[in-house]
Specification:
By secondary structure, the protein is α+β, with helices and mostly antiparallel strands. Helices cover about 65% and strands about 10% of the residues. The protein contains nine helices and four strands; from the N terminus they run H-H-E-H-E-E-E-H-H-H-H-H-H. It has helices spanning about 1-10, 15-20, 30-50, 80-85, 90-105, 105-135, 140-165, 170-185, 185-200, and strands at about 25, 55-60, 65-70, 75-80. A four-stranded mixed β-sheet has the order 1-2-4-3, sandwiched between helices. A hairpin with a 5-residue loop joins strand 3 (about 65-70) and strand 4 (about 75-80). The radius of gyration is 19 Å and the shape is globular.
Length: about 220
């Protein structure tokens, strides 16, 4: 009964939970890089007949992209500012096509559900550790409650690690194949992925429990 209750509660406000956890923001209509992303996503959606897509961006110099479901038939696709500013239009099209590969195959729903169950809470563990260290003079009863909460978060972090390991990285290879098929430009995808791997800024801030949503773990 507890598991069923937790499952349904975790799905409430899925899009908002994941958007906050990823530190994502809606696109700025006055930003030409954001507008280019919106145009590419809409073109890809029309060409593939995909579901409604909401575009997001993350303010980081890291290069990464992700996709998740709102669990109501729509999808969110996000790209970091670092990738938006450094990738050419063809390379960005290939990255967006990769994310569409996850969306159209449906595997992004599985990844979204796993992250909602465990991933959105994993970053709370570090924050609670810092609070416990800072609150040395806190009454014993509050400290005991904090320790109990930290133990629960530890279980959620363990669950996140297990589910991320269970979600095969083979899905990334299948999304790459889908992107090459949609764009007919595998070279641009290879160039974009190589730039992401070699970029000194990494993939940006990605919470451990949400790495299954991203191109770069």
């Amino acid at each position: 009964a507890v598991a069923v209750f937790y499952w349904f509660v975790s799905r409430i406000g899925a899009r908002d939970h994941l958007t906050r956890a990823m530190h994502a923001q809606p696109l700025d209509p006055d930003d030409r890089f954001h507008q280019r992303l919106a145009d590419i996503v809409e073109e890809m959606r029309i060409a593939t007949g995909g579901p409604a897509i909401r575009c997001l961006t993350v303010s980081t110099v890291g290069m990464n992209a992700f996709a998740f479901s709102d669990l109501h038939g729509s999808a969110c696709i996000g790209v970091t500012e670092g990738a938006l500013s450094r990738l050419s239009r063809q390379q960005l099209e290939a990255v967006v096509a990769h994310e569409f590969g996850h969306v159209l195959s449906g595997d992004y729903v599985t990844a979204t559900s796993a992250c909602l169950l465990f991933g959105v809470y994993t970053s709370l563990g570090d924050a609670l550790d810092d609070a416990m260290v800072a609150g040395a003079g806190t009454p014993a009863l509050l400290l005991l409650g904090a320790v109990g909460l930290r133990a629960l978060l530890g279980l959620l972090q363990l669950g996140s690690a297990v589910t991320n390991a269970a979600i095969s990285r083979q899905r990334e290879s299948l999304a790459d194949l889908a992107a090459a098929r949609y764009t007919r430009d595998p070279l641009s995808l290879a160039q974009a992925l190589q730039m992401m791997v070699r970029h000194s800024g990494g993939g940006g801030y990605i919470p451990d429990g949400l790495s299954a949503l991203c191109i770069r773990p």
